[in-house]
Structure prediction request, 89 residues.
Amino acid sequence: MKESFLGIYRKSMHERKICMFKEVVGVGKCPCCGFEVATPSKEWKYNAFLVKRFECPRCEKWFREYYYKGKLSFILIATEKGPRKVEGQ
Prediction:
């Protein structure tokens, strides 16, 4: 059975919304082990940045993602010497 144009349009809109949701909400990907963390543990504004703090359940380290104008700018990860900057992914 063929899908109608409206059905295809709704499906593609739904897929776009999911992609937009992932970009805006931000599914955090741990820079240490690559595990995807679904929700940030904390979120705040820092000057022009939107900061999202994630805690990885696999390696038990935290990392922060800094967004500028809706795009991931850079990531800070926890190390023994303090936070270390990682380029945006």
